[in-house]
What does this fold into?
Amino acid sequence: MRMFRLLLSMCFLVAAPSVFCAPCAPEDFETHVSGSAQCLLMRRFGPTEPETMVVWLHGDVSSGGPANYHFAPAQSAATQFAGAHVLSIALVRPGYPDGSGESSTVAPGSGGRTDHYTRENLEEVGVAIERLRAHFRPKFVVAVGHSGGAATTAVLLGMKPGLLDAAVLVACPCELVAWRANRPGARPWTASENPRSWADKVSTASQVIALTGSKDDNTQPDLARGYVNALQARGVDARFALVPDESHNGAFRSPQVSKALADLLAARPAP
It folds into this structure.
């Protein structure tokens, strides 16, 4: 570990600002991709010369266990949209295992499974997407995030404008302070970034679709609706929709996610 940190610090000292170091050894862009200082796990489905790349981000998995429930919808999307040359990538956020015996690495003190949307963790995910974009060179990049993955996506839209062309936010705790305050017994998250605070930094060229289940008792609809209203006020192409009769997790499994993705693909700029 000491040698790794030494090599990493040397890498940052000698690398040009536009050059990324690669913490993964090896980095195959199939099961592993580097962030800025951590190695993230991933699964890749679809063509390696895509028109569009869709990145899937899981939630906080607060019940414990591996973060791999987004692998199946990522694979299904690659099949469903094969005619549109879609590369579908399920990314595993820092500190989470994927059920294979491996875990995405995480910096000490950067949140773990609680207070997870820290600047450090968000930077890791953002740089990983940058590396994926540079490697596969898609013309259009969409992120599909569920719950904590939606919050991560929403912050990245503002933190790194231009990284994502579009996003589907499912069950998003997009107003973090209100979300924590409404959860019985939950302590405030003081280190995590609030998506709502980044809304005024989102590129007006972005497209955003937010979906929340009408029976979601975890991330209530107003959390995402307020975020979308803030985007619309700035001229961002954003819309919010309720998923009828669906719960927090059920919304992510609903056909509306695929429908939202299809709508964004249909609205892609002409090559």
Remarks:
- The domain at 2-266 is CATH 3.40.50.1820 (Rossmann fold).
- The chain has one domain: 2-266.
- The chain has eight helices and eight strands.
